[in-house]
Amino acid sequence: MKFKEFFILSFMGLKVVIPVAGKGTRLRPHTLLIPKALINVGEKKIIDYIMDIVVPLAPEEVIFVIGYLGDIIKEYIESAYPKVNSSFVIQEKPQGLGHAISVASQKINENDSLLILLGDLIFFADVNKAIKEIPTGEHTISVMSVHDPHRYGVVVLDKKGKYVEKLVEKPSTPVSNLAISGIYYFSIAKPLLESIKYIISNNIKTKGEYQLTDAMMEMVKKGEKISVFQIEEIYDCGSKEKLIEANNKLLDKFFKHIDIKSPAINIKNSVIIPPVYINPNAYIEMSVIGPYVSVHKGANIRNSVIRESIIEEGAYVDGMVMDKSLIGRDSYVEEAFRELNIGPHSEYKKKSL
Ligand code: G1P
Question: How far, in Å, CA of 302 to CA of 337, rounded?
């Protein structure tokens, strides 16, 4: 690509930071071998939804802050997104989001603009529009209204409702129900980098960690202008229940009108109830799949009835009746058909719990 074209197509000086160092403890055992960012939900991995936002922005560099199982993330990104200029920095210990950005700061120049996207959430937002509307020198973060603000960083806006006046990380007393929802854009990185340095060198921690929220509060105190934009669709993938819920919503959004009929080559003698996602390299036989099931590459399902579940890559499922289940990569799950000879007036029941 000629220099002129590159200049037009890309945001020169835009660096994207994606923190993905977390252990995903609430998603264990799935995250014991696979990092959370690479867990499948809907038709693809959590990180793929984030890359769908990043790639069209054509940033100068995408910096992944890795730690736990970081090599697997690096390998995936490099093979799935060879055209993206990606780099990887290691956060040795999980010391908070502010700390994660400080680790990435070795690759950020003060005059770069900086987009931070949290790597464990799926959001649908017009980030390009949000960025373009921000005057140089100002900043913007995504927010959403929540019923449980104590689980988030929250913002209080000024009287005009335009700029952030106060930010509190996981407030114990409710100050606002406007929660920070994972997208942060700084048109110039300098004030943020300085504030992060400040909170780290003065050991300012909340809940034991160096918080991005606290660093932004320092910016506001110094007169920096941070506005907000509402984000409507956000899917938390933090636990098995949340992941299944996100899978349901994503299938509703993208696969509601896709009718997969048996007999496709890889689907034999089966009933498919949409919405479902079935990877072309999965194999299904004598089963009822759906609604709300995603079946990933290399999965093999036989003699089963499955709804509201995720069947991960390479999993083998035979003879199962399942609901709201998450079957991990390359696992083997088998139940047997029963051969019964039940006399009249007999009972063969499940135990009610
Ligand atoms: C982080 C941020 C918090 C934000 C949240 C969004 O918290 O610290 O301000 O509201 O992400 O999900 P975490 O979920 O990592 O505890």
Answer: 12
Segment 14-58, tens digit of pLDDT:
999 999 998 888 999 999 999 999 999 999 999 999 999 999 999
Q: Is the CB of 235 under 6 A from ligand 1?
A: no
For domain 255-334, the CATH architecture is: 3 Solenoid (2.160)
Kindly give the distance from the C-alpha atom of residue 10 to the centroid of ligand 1, in angstroms, as a whole number.
29
Judged against a pLDDT cut of 50, whether residue 311 lies above it is answered with yes
Alpha carbons 235 and 39: distance in angstroms, whole number: 14
What backbone phi and psi angles, to 5 degrees, belong to 245? -60, -45
* C-alpha dihedral sign at 279, 280, 286, 288: positive
Contact between 314 and 330 (Cβ < 8 Å): yes
Q: Which atom of ligand 1 is nearest to the CA of 120?
A: 12
- In ligand 1, which atom is closest to the CA atom of 213? 9
Digit-coded pLDDT (tens) for 174-206: 899 999 999 999 999 999 999 999 999 999 999
Q: What residue spans define the domains of the chain?
A: 3-236, 255-334
CA dist., res. 116 & res. 95, Å (int): 17
Q: What pTM was estimated for this model as a whole? A: 0.90
State the average pLDDT for the chain. 92
What CATH code would you report for 3-236? 3.90.550.10
CB 180 less than 6 A from any atom of ligand 1: yes
**Among the atoms of ligand 1, which is closest to the Cα of residue 153?**
9
Assigned token pair, 299: 């999965």
**Percentage above 90 pLDDT, the chain:** 80
Q: Where are the beta strands (DSSP E) in 139-290?
A: 139-145, 153-157, 164-169, 178-186, 226-230, 233-236, 267-268, 271-272, 276-278, 283-285, 288-289
Distance of CA 153 from the midpoint of ligand 1 (Å):
6
How many Cβ atoms from other residues are within 10 Å of residue 321's Cβ?
11
pLDDT tens sequence across 245-269: 999 999 999 988 777 765 667 999 9
